[in-house]
Amino acid sequence: MNLTSEQKKTVTASFLGWTLDAFDFFLLTFLLTDIAAEFQTDVPAVSKALFLTLATRFIGAFFFGMLADKYGRKPILMLNIVSYSVIGALAAFSPNLGIFLALRALFGIAMGGEWGLGSSLAMESIPPSARGMVSGILQCGYPAGYLLAAVVYGLLYGQKIGDFTFGWRAMFLLSFLPALIVLFIRSHVPESPAFAEARQHVKPGLLETLQKHWGIALYAVVLMMFFNFFSHGTQDLYPTFLKKQHGFDPHTVSWITIVANIGAIVGGLAFGALSERIGRVNAITLACLIALPALPLWAYSTTPFMLAVGAFVMQIAVQGAWGVIPVHLNELSPGAVRATLPGFIYQAGNLAASYGGPYQAGIAEAPGSSYGYALALFAGVVAVCIIIVIRFSPEKRGQVMTVLDHEVGAIPRKV
């Protein structure tokens, strides 16, 4: 993968933005039981924060994406990162569950913008031959953020420094850290070459573009609904599964989650690169097939070691499939709205899948049920659904990316 220095910095910035975005999100998954205890409620009630975060992300994808298609990928990416950092940290000061849920909903809006901005900036800045590998790298930011959250939780949670104890509120204060990436982006990352080239042209609007490409947009939203069930259905309640069903301490929960996310990074990198050889559709299909035989080991093992092995294999499959998504959605999207449409499609799929967490928790805590059963049910059904739906997807591996979409009549801008 031959990239220039500027291209490497662009990919690094996009990766770090998504990593720390995910770090902020996944901190919550380790703290559900503690927040429930402080606010004197149950886990399903607090898990509504997961629902609200996912449900509002499409608003951020649309809002920040529209700004980026108008003003550029770089400045709006910086604004977006500062927004999710500040709002994420404010959750530490929540006086009650209602305020906490409201802040997580606002965090979802800010979080929703980053993926579309970072992926369009990166994909428009690199050669076509590098897209598969870079797609895997970018998507690995998500499990890398989860892994970082697991490490921080294992190292800091419950630790005492004098009279101060690292409780759940202190953990959310760490959300300020991503704002530091803005300094790096401002100093070292150039604007997307495709966007810079398009400044001299009038681009068609989102509605005009959607009217011409409504079929692929609708299909992609359905696909991303299943993808979000796949990832969040195997990740968000897994720490709770380890704590409540198996009674593991924070250290054990942390290292099992770390192993799972190492598997996720391996899967994202491997299948992103593999998609350059066998195609985007085939790579996603293969990754989902791996998830099916991993189900018993992942959800029904009884020892920490075997659960970790199962989680490692499951996340190879889940994030292996996801590792192809940044490049696949960007290749499918018309250039004039590439900062808006892929992110909006991704987050609209999130909206459709957003109640998965509370629904899973309800199944898990029903009489005679378990978290293992709820997790396995979701993962198995959704893996099969993705295998079926992805076979209908167009394959546009290696397509030239410009911001100007000649099919819908981009015209020179009058000066």
TrEMBL record:
Presence of the UniProt keyword Nucleus in the record: no
InterPro entries: MFS (IPR011701), MFS_dom (IPR020846), MFS_trans_sf (IPR036259), Sugar_transporter_CS (IPR005829)
Main location: membrane
UniProt membrane topology term: Multi-pass membrane protein
Annotated Major facilitator superfamily (MFS) profile domain residues: 10-397
Keyword Membrane part of the UniProt annotation: yes
UniProt superkingdom: Bacteria
Membrane spanning residue stretches: 12-33, 45-64, 76-93, 134-156, 168-185, 216-233, 253-274, 281-299, 305-327, 371-392
Keyword entries, A-Z: Membrane, Transmembrane, Transmembrane helix
Subcellular location: Membrane
Record protein name field: MFS transporter
